[in-house]
Structures are given as structure tokens and as C-alpha cells.
Amino acid sequence: MPEFDIKKLMGDMKIPAMPDVEAVLAAHKRNLDALTEANRVALEGAQLVARRHMEIMQETMSGLTSTLKELAGNQPPAVRAAKQAELLKKAYENAVANTKELGDLIQKSNAEAMSKLNTRFSEAMTEMKALLEKK
Asked: pTM for the full model?
């Protein structure tokens, strides 16, 4: 059996170049910062939606109270039916408008959070390309 020469074996091996560890760690930190910022934006958006939803509920309850007062009067059935139809129409329009408003708030918040992540992803790909070109 021929002699085993570890130096020759190691000399023939091609070990890939080590990446710039500090650059990789800095990139990971920027990734975490972007993720943290996107989460902050999403949380603030969720809080805004929750606050607005609560305001809408309060407005609805207040409106319901005044509606019940309007309908409590002694009026002929035709007048009462017309009022009920008008109030129902108004309630439906308010519900649609409120739903659209909440949906728009959610969409805006999600778009802002995704924009932050997309920007960071694009930057990370540029950084990776630059690191690989250094070799």
C-alpha cells in the first residue's frame, strides 16, 4: 500500500473561498431589520383597523338608538313602512361604505409591509450577487 500523504491530498483539494463573514452577518441584520419593520407596519395597520372598527360599531349603536326613537312614534303604517325602508337603505349603504373603508385600510397596510419586504429582498439579491462576484 502506498504511503498516504495528507499534504498532497489537501493540496489537490479545491476548497471554496469563504464568504466575507462580516458582510453576510450585516446582510442578515438588514434582513431582520426589514422583517421587523414590515411586522411593525402590519401591526400598526391591524391596530388602526381595530380602532376604526370600534368607532364604526359605536356609530352604528348610536344610529340604532336614534332609529328606534324615530320608529317609536305613533305614525300611520304607510309612513312607518316608508321610514323603515329609508332607514334600511341607509343602513345598507353605511355597511357597504364601512366595509370598503376597512378593506382599504387593510390593503394599504399590507401593501406597505410587502413593499418593505420586496425592497429588502431586491437589495439582498444585489448584495448576494456582489459577494459572489468577489470570488
From this structure: 0.69
Mean confidence (pLDDT) of the chain: 87
- Distance, in Å, from the CA atom of 80 to the CA atom of 52, rounded to the nearest integer, reads 32
In sequence order, the 6+-apart residues with CB closer than 8 A to the CB of 23 are: 127, 131
Q: Tens digits of per-residue pLDDT, 16-69?
A: 666 678 888 899 999 999 999 999 999 999 999 999 999 999 999 998 888 888
Is 21:70 a contact under the CB 8 Å cutoff? no
Torsion of CA 44, 46, 51, 57, to 10 degrees: 170
The CA angle 107-33-48, to the nearest 5 degrees, is 30
Q: Are 120 and 31 in contact (CB under 8 A)?
A: yes
